[in-house]
């Protein structure tokens, strides 16, 4: 498929106009981390996502992104680069209220004692705040700065529009800790058709609200308030605002005695909207207004939510229980927030799906000062956050130190391993899990059943005519996508239309308006599994394999294709329930060593909750998917734990949630699921907690290149450990149970590693702690790949489990995943480079070079722009056997005709090992390092726009690990130093024949063997 990146392939899908682009936006842009109907276009929601057809997967946007009734605003010109003029966040050197422990003459400590919360109304707080005001004024005056927003509670500093000279002046001032250019944050664009959604105007405030149905639990029984429902807790929601008229918030409640917040009125938002269930509401737009002058079109300057995302997250965390909700006339049953008796404090920090960190920090600062116990942050950065110590990260650290639990979304970039948002160790980072199937089956006329997803009512019954959109309209208008205005009513009336993935809302509206009977959506490059409600029969087939099957069926049956659509399937659309959602961002953290992310997963797919009618076709409730939906689930759970155990710190709450989580179906890897799937009943009585001290977190935050493995976290992450020597860590266990208990340790998984825990058992009285020493040694564990497992402390009444992931760094630093594609493994024999993860003497050896063996083939060309399927025209299948102890296999396909596109797929059985199909090119390569032995199949898929026959060559090399081929001399240094790259050459001992040659190298240090490279050369490299 085509992308917007220079040099990327221009692919077509049976028509001349299908162009699919990788959308990249403003550097540093981020957004709400929820996932919307695949096919929305725009830029990343805590994800950095892809639009239809780019690379391997496409647009997985967020709940607000996917909202049917609003478009993402353009970024106002307030952000700055690090050297130019613009808006900046200035952090001052003195502590904010949350962390000040004394030291200024005459000013008492304001940091709350353990178990207490910050009281901004106290005499010490008021006095210290006046001191901070004075110091801030002096710093600003010295630099000639006009202050914009002021921060004192969770962050000491201000935002301001600065010139380059003022930036330099402030950075030289010893009273200033950091000056950081404000980052733009935002949600991806809404679907194009969303602009036609029916808007809902705000209704007059009704004190207490009006229920659409009586408060009840999911079985319809009345709910009794108590600790188990979050009573007495306030959850702050940093998001797009709230729709206060929703039945999910329709309850009068008194404000807690410790509440210091306010109800900020504004356009379409009056004081009565803060009815107690909504205990407070504020909005923050100073930075936005400084750059843009006004809020985006469709927005209102108030806490009111015009998008839907903030309402959805708030009601997921703490919405009232309702016995039934109706969407577009269909009953979807009961809904409830996780903590239905918790109260909600609203902090609107995004406008039209966009905002700035300077305004978000103001929201965090206000939330901490107001007295929230829990914060939810369903916002993230493109392709993850790169550092924990951003201004937002610092504000969250200080909030945590003041007793505020922070839940945050991990991001929706499952395609990109390690692209974790909100990865700071003091934040509980939440991935998304699938907890219900919501399947549908499309049965083709030849009997093939394709199981996808749907939340719509499907007709069932007999088969209906099926037509491909490209064959039923104007290619120039995007009929392959079924874009608005592209289809011919005469050709689709009464038929189901198959459409390539684009804007699913727009496609469904087009087919419905033209008299079609339904829609089947397929994605030629594969996408995430996600459902939306279209109020029209829609089945979405997310996988590339399904796309190939459907597309090639349509090619074989251009006039007589049929399909039947029915609700339900065979469970094959997901590994099981619960399972990690494929869009959920995976770990480990890319930058910070020793930090495990995500922390855990929670329900985040097809979540029905309250929304803003203004942004959702007039709907009061809707289904969203994404880690944005999972994070408030954990926020609600944290509110329940804090109500049940008011003495627990945020770290203790996080530990309880993580050590009691259970494995998901389909993976037990902590890189995907973190500690596992949330188990709230167990978390209320975890037995043990493992939590870092405040001093540990502060030291981590102040270290230039921190390593979190020494933090007392309920996980162990060794991303780049030295496999030539043991790693020793400690963890401190605290008994939070009611009785004395003995816990015995055991190790599960971690193949090829020796793990010892000393002492092996500990006996603890309530409230007492013990420190254990954990030693991990590499045995036969593979280099440069993760092994995963866990350590469990089992007592008579409780158990606590922590995940472990360890990757010994051999010669490839920082591959963020072990997904089969090796990082820095291929090398050129004339100029190879290795970056070792060990220090010591160095020797090496090689197999010498073996030639790539090529065979010529000729076959009919496939459909120009078609979709791969093993049975399709234009596919050549070649089998070969890989013996045991093979270092690597390399497969190449090429043709002399530059107009021919080749794609190459390497399978082992039914498992895809490697695909090379991202660009329009006449040559492709696939490889696998240290492959499992067995039978492999290479598929070459050829498309030729100008003729019926394709001539090509297929070559492969199988490099044995201990083979001896044509001799070669390996030259390398005699010693290695961890992290310091060295060059090597592998020169043939005699001239090579014409063609391509491959070899394998490996290294050893003090007797420990480390796999090396697959090395390529041609004779011309040595002439």
Automatic annotation (TrEMBL):
Residues 711-805 form the Subtilisin-like protease fibronectin type-III domain. Residues 184-210 have a biased composition (Low complexity). Residues 1-35 form the signal peptide. GO terms for biological process: proteolysis. It holds the Pfam family Inhibitor_I9. Residues 88-183 form the Inhibitor I9 domain. Keywords: Hydrolase, Protease, Serine protease, Signal. This is Lactocepin. It comes from Micromonospora saelicesensis.
